[in-house]
Amino acid sequence: MQRFQVTAQAGNYPVMIGRGAWRELRPLPQSSYSSVFVLTEKGIWQHWGKRFMREAALRKACPIFVPPGEKSKSLAEVERVASELARAGGDRRSLLILFGGGVIGDLGGLVASTYMRGIDCIQVPTTLVGQVDSSIGGKNAVNLPAGKNLVGTFYPPRMVLADPAVLSTLSPRIFRSGLYEVIKHAILAGPALFDLLDRHLDSLRPDNLKALEAILGPVVRVKIDVVNRDERESGLRQVLNLGHTFGHALEAATGYGRFLHGECVGWGLLAITILAEQLGYLNAAASTPKKGVPDSRRIRDLVWRVGPLPSIRNIPARAIVKLLLHDKKAVAGKIHWVIPERLGKMRIVTGIPLAAAERAWRDLRGMSNPR
Ligand SMILES: NC(=O)c1ccc[n+]([C@@H]2O[C@H](COP(=O)([O-])OP(=O)(O)OC[C@H]3O[C@@H](n4cnc5c(N)ncnc54)[C@H](O)[C@@H]3O)[C@@H](O)[C@H]2O)c1
Ligand SMILES: [Zn+2]
Q: Would you kindly state where each structural domain of the chain is located, as residue ranges?
């Protein structure tokens, strides 16, 4: 088990990652809560509910079910869940456990931060995206028709408990979608973690607990280090959006349902790498020790190696460019691009001509997975 500490304005909280993490709920003084609710999905709860209740030694918890999928990240769903809490007697001293992937975490975090002006919540991520990314950092949000993650708050959980054993029931596609966020963290971290991931990528499978335990700690640490230095995204935290400017545009272009979030990040990483190369930011230099192979090639190769991504053949560059401007990371209409200069070094760049972004996407569409 690995333990980390996130420092947040509203109070620090621990992140426990490893086999048996759910047991860390046992010392929780359950009697200090008037009631315990678990926000989850029926499918996840059927698989894992009994084991979670047993390992966490929870005496009583009332599950609240949310339909699976990105569409559940809506204000309508916030209202429905809050109403269910109210109907079931939830009060200021209730605890909300967020037991699911990034959708449950984002929706539930917003509910917890606003229900009766804020109740305690605990993140128990059950997807790879959830375990390495969305459950950490206290950001939550739901989507509006106008764009993704447009309504949300910063609201730290009391703790994050990530047991990689729960990943064993993920479909290969959903698991792969998390690997793109893992690669993103490795690009941010630098050559050491990137090399480690490069060596172990093929052994990362939903049921390979040993391999997962070995890689999750260092990957999670990347996000925690960034968040600890910049909780409110005043600067440094922006780097976590690597690949997400294109990624969010693709998510919008495909109606938030056809592609998984992580898959859009996978395409986004490829697109930003091509853009960075074409604009001369990411030059042919190679970070050691894989001498001779430029970082741009290594990033692209690693993303392709994860496996098949759903095709973007019918997503025209025009459509993507139009949607880029709607990203909430745009400030006063300016897109803040996170540009990789080499492994471990990002630069925030504004003023990149949209024509350049359009060309990068067009070139990407023309490529096929070389593997
Ligand atoms: N707040 C943040 O900082 C942050 C960071 C990254 C991503 N996100 C958000 O996270 C969301 C994506 O998260 P996600 O990829 O986890 O998606 P998700 O929550 O939709 O989960 C993906 C699928 O996995 C299924 N599932 C979950 N756990 C399972 C299990 N253990 N076994 C079998 N199936 C399981 C779900 O039913 C769902 O169909 C996006 O909305 C994204 O914007 C937020
Ligand atoms: Zn993401």
A: 2-169, 175-366
